[in-house]
Amino acid sequence: MTALEVRHLHKRYGRHVAVDDVSFTVEEGEIFGIIGPNGAGKTTTVESIAGLRAPDSGSISVLGLDPIEDRAEVREQLGVQLQESSFPDAIQVAEVLDLYSSFYRDPADWRELLELLGLAEKRRTQYKALSGGQKQRLSVALALVGNPKVAILDELTTGLDPQARRDTWSLVERVRDTGVTIVLVTHFMDEAERLSDRIAVIDGGRVAAVDTPAGLVARTSAVQQLRFRVSRPLDESVLTGLPEVSGVEVTEGRWLVTGRGQLLNSVVGALARAQVVAEDLRVDQRTLDDAFEAFTGRAPQSPGASERKAG
């Protein structure tokens, strides 16, 4: 079933068009990633989904509800963790969660959330004493305390160290396993690839592509590259004559073979017939970074830069 549907969403600020005809759907139980350059319209899109911004045109449906017209009901069904949040330094973790749970008709047990998110021992800890990773976990807890069916997580791991990022990824997967549909906005390509069932690439306020991580990579290029050294002299024609090979370069004894299809099997087979061993063989495979660059014309930007100034 469809949990979220965005159709022809348009939003401008003065002369600046932040979102220009964005459409996509998110299925129940899915982790749906959204990636794109800074200023592409990602945050404006998710803030519109959350009812924090009113679209100029287009429609949004969250579990069949309109975020503006059905604001109160959507608030009960949708949890949101935005890029930035802060609380009084002296407020304790338990106090924040107890306060937020009072905002909902049927809140989750925040004590169980603390256990799920690994914050049980921090319930009496003041906000100022939490680490960056613990503050992010608290943000997730606040997004889930209303017992939502859909959760938006915006730049969840920005500023976290590598171990905290990996721990947070495992947390997101556990949350999805409880039945929550997740919309994940991120600048990290490895994060999007690891967590997302499908990904929307947004660029210039429009959706450039929607597919699985592997599907996005496959759509950018079918070109493959092999790099190796040979155990004995080899005539280039042994490889250039193969139908899968489109190019061969030899530089200081290092071979670079470019091609498509079953390139690896074809090249290794040809070398074996010539009684040559491919030493230090490397297969250069396309990644989501390559797909991002292909669809947007820009390399992925480092996390941490906010979209808010650009809308």
Short description:
By secondary structure, the chain is an alpha/beta fold. Helices cover 32% and strands 28% of the residues. The chain has a six-stranded mixed β-sheet, sandwiched between helices. Strands 11-12-10-13 form a four-stranded antiparallel β-sheet, with helices on one face. A three-stranded antiparallel β-sheet has the order 2-1-4, with helices on one face.
Largest beta sheet: what is the strand line-up?
A: 5-6-7-3-8-9
Shape: elongated
**Rg over CA atoms:** 24 Å
Q: H/E order of the elements?
A: EEEHEHEHHHEHEHEEHEHEEHEH
User: Average pLDDT, to the nearest integer?
Assistant: 90
Structural class: alpha/beta
**How large a portion of the residues is in β-strands, by DSSP E?**
25-35%
What's the tally of helices?
A: 11
Q: What percentage of residues falls in helices of 4 or more residues?
A: 25-40%
